[in-house]
Amino acid sequence: MATKAIKLLIADSEGTVCDRISSFLAGDSTYQVVGRAINADECMSLALIKHPDVILVHSGLKPTSGIEVCEQLALQNLNSATLLVMAQAMDENLYRRMMAAGVGELLMAPLQKDRTMEAIRNAFDGKTSQRQNDAAASNEEKRRIIVVTGARGGCGRTMVAVNLSCAIAKATERVSPGSNNVVLADFNVRASDAATFLDIRPQRILADITASAGGVDREMIESLLENHDSGVTLLSASSSESDGGQELTRGIIVSALAVLRSRFKYSVVDVGVTGAEVSNVVLDFCDTILMVVGMDLPRLRAARLYLDQLLEANFPREKIQIVLNDIQPDSKSILTAQAETILEATVAARLPHGGPVVLASVNLGQPFVLTHPNAPISLAVNKLAAKVGVEVGKGLSVGGLLQRLQPAREKNELGHGICYNAYKAITLGIK
Q1: Hey, which of 105, 318, 374, 407 has its CA 20 to 30 A from 346?
Q2: pTM, rounded to two decimals
Q3: What does CATH list as the number for 144-428?
Q4: For residue range 365-378, what is the model confidence (pLDDT) as tens digits?
Q5: In the CATH scheme, what architecture does the domain 6-136 have?
Q6: Which portions of the chain are predicted below pLDDT 50?
Q7: Any long-range contacts for 98-102 (C-beta under 8 Å, 24+ apart)?
């Protein structure tokens, strides 16, 4: 019985790597070149269509760079092994980025036949072994990136993102203190509020490292993470004190997402203005899109337009889940069936009006799924967590979490019964 050929995808803007490897493979049926990409977009498209076993990426791939393409490939959770072909010397920063992106091996140009064929075979064997191990570990949860978005402000997007993160953390058991399974990435550059909802003052934010010429590596991202007693780790793109003028490039966002996926089982990402570069990049690489929709006619209409835009951009409909927020127990309010008619989509989750529970949660910086676990809105968020594949009902007890959260509030030197961020907003007039 003939052995199945190893399928190769080669990404090289100049064509020299493609030509050289083709010359190595002349007459060898062990290998099959299934695609040649001349730029980053072609590489990503062919990787998704052709399902190659090994992808060789040249460092000079245009219009971005080879290492950024490797990071984007890592986010797609492909079964392909990735090799990076370098035309120049490697520095320490590049090595770190390679490790974070799961690059199997580095090859230096000009390529040598024996060395190249050995690297391809080793990469293929290593990926095959990894797939077998993953299949054997049936209880191992798939790493997920869950985006929480909305068509316009005021829909409750951040409230959902924060409490969903805490609900997931509560339901997933940590193997040791500090080894959190959940990260909340607040990528809303212009109005980053997740830290306020958790009463955290980030020491550093993602915007602080955008000027680094060397790019973003795992160590940099790790230095920005803030742990919360709930079991959630926070990464903030900006802070409430920043002017919102920082720019986050595609490369920085992709690098950050690659690190988060490799580090955490669940990454919940709060994105801001739709259509912005940050939002587009995150949506490209996420597994689930939760679109939060406020229950009034203007927000429903805006959500309908946003949903149409996502579908026109070829996002799979099954990837998008509609979350209706702030459902009022009033006969004059819009019904779920009416909302579905306006949206022309099925609603995946319904969050009831939270009232004083939600208001107190924001002002105190304490997520309501922890402080009021039996409130209707908390139970609804737990159901939402189950919708995105989390087994709810196990993990750390709510009582234990509250015991750790309450002393932190009592030790607050302000003594006003509200979180630090809320106090600063009131005293300094920050909105």
Answers
A1: 374
A2: 0.68
A3: 3.40.50.300
A4: 999 999 999 999 99
A5: 3-Layer(aba) Sandwich (3.40)
A6: 1, 136-140, 211-214, 244-245, 395-416, 420, 423-431
A7: 98/67, 98/70, 99/218, 100/71, 100/74, 100/217, 100/218, 100/255, 100/258, 100/259, 100/262, 101/67, 101/70, 101/71, 101/73, 101/74, 101/258, 102/70, 102/74, 102/262
